[in-house]
Amino acid sequence: QLQLQESGPGLVKPSETLSLSCTVSGGSISSGNYFWGWIRQPPGKGLEWIGSTSYSGSTNYKPSLKSRATMSLDTSKNQFSLKLTSVTAADTAVYYCTRASEFDYWGQGILVTVSS
Amino acid sequence: QAGLTQPPSVSKGLRQTATLTCTGSNNNVGYLGAGWLQQHQGHPPKLLSDRNHNRPSGISERFSASRSGNTASLTITGLQPEDEADYYCSAWDSSLSDVVFGGGTKLTVL
């Protein structure tokens, strides 16, 4: 059974960079033709797709976040990561990692608060 | 802002049938279909149905998805207390090159 687990700081200062990792167990991120992605959910609000990336190197980002988001895979650690630059309070959310494109496996989520 | 339109709330009685709708456009729901997610408070979303209306292993047959034109639907039969949750639809939007979600429907089982 595939399992995903997010990790990273829960508090980030405004204008700094948010960095999260997702460790995958029970399967390899380099097998199959899957995308691996990030979705966030501001407190009390709905879901927002951030982007996804694949082992083949294909990456898609939400257009409004494209200038600030970077995703990558580390096959040696079976992890994928998200970096989001120049964060503001509007980036405060629970961040989920997920197997795209169908979103069939999810991590438990990590709350990231942007505050000084 | 939500790219797909879902009713904010639906209330139905125990053992009744609820049909949740998700309205989009030719560029998203009408293009490749919509997936459905269930989210209980404080938990991550769970996939109920993919864009091709396939249920993942372990998902009850009480959940079934369909599509007519630009509107996707999720039907839940024999409502149980544990079905009370938020339900989201999602789709790839070819014009935006973006994954869009509905705003979510809060299902209450009376």
SSE arrangement:
The complex is a heterodimer of chains A (116) and B (110).
Chain A: E1 3-7, E2 11-12, E3 18-25, E4 35-41, E5 48-54, E6 59-61, E7 69-74, E8 79-84, E9 93-100, E10 110-114
Parallel strand pairs in A: 2-10
Antiparallel strand pairs in A: 1-3, 3-8, 4-5, 4-9, 5-6, 7-8, 9-10
Chain B: E1 9-12, E2 18-23, H1 29-32, E3 35-39, E4 46-49, E5 63-68, E6 71-76, E7 85-93, E8 98-101, E9 105-109
Parallel strand pairs in B: 1-9
Antiparallel strand pairs in B: 2-6, 3-4, 3-7, 5-6, 7-8, 7-9
How many β strands of chain A by DSSP? 10
Average predicted local confidence, pLDDT of chain B: 96
Oligomer: heterodimer
Largest interface: A-B, 16 and 22 residues
Largest sheet report of chain B: 6 strands, mixed
Structural class of chain B: mainly beta
Number of helices of chain A: 0
**Main beta sheet of chain A:** 6 strands, mixed
Structural Rg of chain B: 13 Å
How would you describe this structure to a colleague?
- The complex is a heterodimer of chains A (116) and B (110).
- Chain A is mainly β.
- Chain A is 0% helix and 49% strand.
- Chain A is built from no helices and ten strands.
- Chain A has strands spanning 3-7, 11-12, 18-25, 35-41, 48-54, 59-61, 69-74, 79-84, 93-100, 110-114.
- The model of chain A has no long low-confidence stretch (mean pLDDT 96).
- Chain B is mainly β and 110 residues long.
- Chain B contains one helix and nine strands; from the N terminus they run ββαβββββββ.
- Chain B has one helix at 29-32; strands at residues 9-12, 18-23, 35-39, 46-49, 63-68, 71-76, 85-93, 98-101, 105-109.
- In chain B, strand 3 and strand 4 (46-49) form a beta hairpin.
- The termini of chain B are far apart.
- Chains A and B meet through loops of A and strand 7 and strand 8 of B.
